[in-house]
């Protein structure tokens, strides 16, 4: 009986799932070996097999002279390789050549998706840093203005030989404050028609491959007002609020997240279990689980975005211990994006 592509598909049915597991769990340096071993298991009649991927290579076995050697390019990342014994019938060779090509295409596609996800994470980090800088700009600007005013007061009372030096300090402070003005004037995109759905934004923030999905229980509210932000901005903001609050959750159960309609507008409420005590005034005052860095910037960015985009954020201590973080947006569209 001739071996056809259809006959072999049953042997390869698990290839996509096995490939996804291997790429998720294996370090990049071990992937060539893992994929070569996957080829060996899925093609028992192969006498040789191997994979070259992103500079790493793993090959085993050989079919000797007269062997059928099959290769398939994995995009620009490498290639898959099989050697079939000379006794392999032509139908099997044709079927495996086609199937090896499909396997290589599947691998190339997954590597491309992985690269896009990495770019997305890096872009999200850049957005977070930029948003945090906008929030910090207002604090720094207030400090600079105070310094300039105090320096001017001291300059008027200082001896003649110190006035020029104090004048220089005042001018540099004023110049620094002036350079911060473009950041203070930035605005994000607003929803042009009717705003965005808060429940949809939360669902998107928790959807795979998010690492937050299993750590949060979501209770969507009904008949919510639209939030006057563009969908992409609202999703980003929800993710930042979640990432700012989840590390503070000390309970065994998942963090509670709910949405509700209030007199002020749509509201998102996060309830984190933890010890009793007073609630901090700002998200950035919460204890850091990872020791600072990106975690602290995410909290500054979340608080900055809520306030800058027309919302209000509030932190309250829970009677039973822990913390409630709520963000509220008033109802109604706010027009188009503006700069300046």
Gross morphology is elongated
Mean pLDDT: 77
Beginning-to-end CA distance, first to last residue: 75 Å
Radius of gyration: 29 Å
The main pleated sheet reads as:
5 strands, mixed
The secondary structure category is alpha+beta
Number of strands: 9
H/E element sequence? HHHEEEEHHHHEHEEHEE
Strand content: 15-25%
What would you note in describing this structure?
The relative contact order is 0.09. With 340 residues, the protein is an alpha+beta fold. The strands form 2 sheets. Strands 5-6-7-9-8 form a 5-stranded mixed beta sheet, with helices on one face. The protein has a 4-stranded antiparallel beta sheet with strand order 2-1-4-3, with helices on one face. The model is unreliable at 333-340 (pLDDT under 50). The chain has helices at residues 5-9, 15-25, 31-42, 90-157, 160-179, 181-184, 198-206, 231-245, 294-308; strands spanning 48-53, 56-61, 68-74, 78-84, 216-219, 255-261, 266-272, 311-317, 323-329. The longest helix has 68 residues, at 90-157. A hairpin with a 3-residue loop joins β3 (68-74) and β4 (78-84). α2 runs antiparallel to α3 (31-42), α4 (90-157) crosses α9 and α8 (231-245) packs across α9. The chain is elongated.
Keywords:
disordered C terminus, alpha+beta, 47% helix, five-stranded mixed β-sheet, four-stranded antiparallel β-sheet, 340 residues
Helices and strands in order:
Elements: H1 5-9, H2 15-25, H3 31-42, E1 48-53, E2 56-61, E3 68-74, E4 78-84, H4 90-157, H5 160-179, H6 181-184, H7 198-206, E5 216-219, H8 231-245, E6 255-261, E7 266-272, H9 294-308, E8 311-317, E9 323-329
Parallel strand pairs: 5-6
Antiparallel strand pairs: 1-2, 1-4, 3-4, 6-7, 7-9, 8-9
Helix pairs in contact: 2-3, 2-4, 4-5, 4-9, 7-8, 8-9
